[in-house]
């Protein structure tokens, strides 16, 4: 079992940092038809289209889902696409389901137009689909 502190994510542990877990209601919303998490499926679009990464980092830090080192690591680059790339590949994906779900919630709040666009795409989340890849 790997603890969240390994990724600088706090004191509680997440079993194997895998991609299982999360509530049934979350998984039905954040899963695509192929069973892949919404955040992972749309990662390239998020990298290219999210322009305000620092407010996302602020919320993750405030919720103790990342530590200050991870916060600084992500914001240390000036281009929002590079920040989002670091956030996804170095923090969110290795952090497992909990972080993907939280990023999804934050994006729904911070980037509603983008999320509506992505959810309306043929690769949108499908209710009732479980699992994560």
Q: Would you write up a description of this structure?
A:
With 133 residues, the chain is mainly alpha-helical. It has one domain: Death Domain, Fas (Orthogonal Bundle), CATH 1.10.533.10. Helix content is 55%, strand content 0%. The protein has eight helices and no strands. It has helices at 24-30, 38-41, 43-49, 54-62, 68-75, 80-95, 97-110, 112-119. The two termini are 19 Å apart. The model is unreliable at 1-28 and 124-133 (pLDDT under 50).
Question: Which terms summarize this structure?
Answer:
133 residues, mainly alpha, Death Domain, Fas, 8 helices, 0% strand, disordered C terminus
Summarize the structure.
The chain has helices spanning 24-30, 38-41, 43-49, 54-62, 68-75, 80-95, 97-110, 112-119.
List the secondary-structure elements in sequence, H or E.
Answer: HHHHHHHH
Question: At the fourth CATH level, what is the homologous superfamily?
Answer: Death Domain, Fas
Main beta-sheet annotation: none
Taken from the alpha-carbon principal axes, the silhouette is: globular
Strand element count: 0
Distance from first to last alpha carbon = 19 Å
CATH architecture descriptor text: Orthogonal Bundle
- Tell me the name of the CATH class: Mainly Alpha
Number of helices: 8
């Amino acid at each position: 079992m790997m603890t969240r502190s390994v990724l600088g994510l706090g004191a509680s542990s997440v079993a194997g940092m895998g991609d299982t877990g999360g509530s049934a209601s979350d998984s039905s919303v954040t899963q695509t038809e192929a069973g892949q998490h919404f955040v992972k499926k749309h990662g390239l679009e998020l990298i290219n289209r999210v322009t305000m990464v620092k407010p996302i980092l602020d919320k993750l830090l405030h919720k103790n889902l990342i530590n200050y080192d991870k916060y600084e690591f992500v914001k240390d680059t000036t281009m929002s696409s590079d920040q989002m790339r670091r956030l996804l590949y170095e923090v969110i994906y290795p952090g497992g389901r909990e972080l993907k779900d939280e990023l999804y919630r934050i994006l729904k709040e911070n980037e509603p137009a983008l999320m509506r666009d992505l959810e309306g795409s043929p690769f949108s989340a499908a209710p009732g689909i479980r699992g994560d890849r």
